[in-house]
Amino acid sequence: MTIDEFNALDGDGATALVLTAAAVPTWASAVVARRPYPDVAALLAAADSLAEHWAQPEVDAALADHPRIGERPHGSGAAADHSRREQAAVGTAPDTVRERVATGNRAYEERFGRIFLIRAAGRSPREILNELERRLTNDPATEVAEVADQLREITRLRLAGAFA
């Protein structure tokens, strides 16, 4: 898709596309409302700016659409396709790493009450495991901020990918 095609979409179509990057309806509506964009860089800058203050409600909304790290996404559609691509490396990890990630996922969910989220694209399974284990030591407020940062990174990559 080109930026001109995005700018020409009706509101529902543009919002649906933006929601594939992050399931945060208020953010997606705000991104769409700022159209037209002169180029993809301007769109990404606006999306980043609008996501800068994501907090617990936005994180919760977006996480509802994410699978656990190391698990295959269920369903179909753009969001599930993104997750499959982003987490592909974890499936190739040694059994010991996959087992530690699964154990860490359970500990994380017990501690923080939500799934562990990390920008998996570009990271090795070992890096993901190390980050999971490090973040288990975060206090809840620090972790919400880290999750929001990771979510913004994922969102930026996904949105940029829609225009590649």
Automatic annotation (TrEMBL):
One of its GO terms (biological process) is purine nucleobase metabolic process. It comes from the Bacteria. It is an enzyme of class 4 (lyase). It catalyses: 5-hydroxy-2-oxo-4-ureido-2,5-dihydro-1H-imidazole-5-carboxylate + H(+) = (S)-allantoin + CO2. Its EC number is 4.1.1.97. One of its GO terms (molecular function) is 2-oxo-4-hydroxy-4-carboxy-5-ureidoimidazoline decarboxylase activity. Keywords: Decarboxylase, Lyase, Purine metabolism. Residues 67-96 are annotated as: Disordered. Signal peptide: none annotated. Residues 7-160 form the Oxo-4-hydroxy-4-carboxy-5-ureidoimidazoline decarboxylase domain. Pathway: Purine metabolism; urate degradation; (S)-allantoin from urate: step 3/3. InterPro entries: OHCU_decarboxylase (IPR018020), OHCU_decarboxylase-2 (IPR017595), OHCU_decarboxylase_sf (IPR036778). This is 2-oxo-4-hydroxy-4-carboxy-5-ureidoimidazoline decarboxylase. It comes from Miniimonas arenae.
